[in-house]
Amino acid sequence: MGPLLTLIEIEEMRAALQRGDAQVECTLDLGRTMTSILLEKDAWKWQDKSFPYLANGNARTIYYWNGNVFQPASRYTTALIKLVPTAWGPPTFEIDGIKMLPTAQVSPYADAERKVALIQPQGKAILDTCGGLGYFAAWCAQGRAARVLSYEKNPDVIWLRGINPWSPPVNEILTLANADIAEKIASLPNASVDAILHDPPRFGIAGELYSQVFYDHLARVIKRQGKLFHYTGSPNKLTSGRDVPNEVSKRLRNAGFDTQLLGDGVLAVKK
């Protein structure tokens, strides 16, 4: 993986160069590690390779090295998919400007850790319905899950995972399918998973992932007493006209779960 830059690193290099420093300590992997780079007049060096200085940058953009130049970590196929830096290090991502992970009060990576802990992953087979950047899957693996079945339907999001150093690798524990869980759920065997993490896009984008039909399938594939955490966010009832957390809770109960509203989601247990 090549170096990743944000506006912070761009400005650190510029300031060090102006001071006449021969090297500077910074991160090139969004805060996972620190490294030393050598500063020369027209380029900087890292791991015996030379890279050009960026004259400027955008505070909401991550730049990746494509082998020739630095480019924004974004793609546009059917929507603009973009990796976005945070104050915490681990990035979030956006789809057409809509932020997919909470970042205002907590790191999206730490937020995933808290939610994964609710389903107690150790030794379990876990269905991760909407993989995103893979933060749920990463904490499942760290929590010694037996296996994680992750689905992500957008290939551009999977491409972002390949750039993001905080995203987990696919291995013998974690499988990642480029597929729509709304379609694939019907083919999963009955009682084949011990727990489920469901972090769908908002209702207006992916209403099928909030449907009674889909929840009935979740109840079918999870074992008795299996735990499910369903992220709902906290939409404003006055502006949206909907009480999404309670709607979700009601449908999950109809599917055969006991439920409780918990933080920004619903924690459910299969009866």
Largest sheet: 7 strands, mixed
Mean pLDDT: 95
Strand line-up across the major sheet: 14-13-12-15-16-18-17
Between the first and last Cα atoms, what is the distance in angstroms?
A: 45 Å
Backbone shape = elongated
Number of strands: 18
Report the radius of gyration as a whole number of Å: 21 Å
> Helices and strands: which structural class?
alpha+beta
Helical run tally: 8
Topology:
Blueprint: E1 4-5, H1 7-19, E2 23-26, E3 35-39, E4 44-46, E5 49-51, E6 63-65, E7 70-72, E8 74-76, E9 80-84, E10 92-95, E11 98-99, H2 108-118, E12 125-128, H3 135-142, E13 147-151, H4 155-163, E14 174-177, H5 181-184, E15 193-198, H6 212-221, E16 222-231, H7 237-240, H8 244-255, E17 257-262, E18 265-270
Parallel strand pairs: 12-13, 12-15, 13-14, 15-16
Antiparallel strand pairs: 1-6, 2-3, 3-4, 4-5, 6-7, 8-9, 9-10, 10-11, 16-18, 17-18
Helix pairs in contact: 2-3, 6-8
Descriptive overview:
With 271 residues, this protein is α+β, with helices and mostly antiparallel strands. Helix content is 26%, strand content 29%. It is built from eight helices and 18 strands. The protein has helices at residues 7-19, 108-118, 135-142, 155-163, 181-184, 212-221, 237-240, 244-255, and strands at 4-5, 23-26, 35-39, 44-46, 49-51, 63-65, 70-72, 74-76, 80-84, 92-95, 98-99, 125-128, 147-151, 174-177, 193-198, 222-231, 257-262, 265-270. The strands form four sheets. A seven-stranded mixed β-sheet has the order 14-13-12-15-16-18-17, with helices on both faces. The chain has a four-stranded antiparallel β-sheet with strand order 2-3-4-5, covered by helices on one side. A four-stranded antiparallel β-sheet has the order 8-9-10-11, with helices on one face. A hairpin with a 4-residue loop joins strand 3 and strand 4. Helix 2 packs across helix 3 and helix 6 (212-221) packs across helix 8. The longest helix has 13 residues, at 7-19. The N and C termini lie far apart (45 Å).
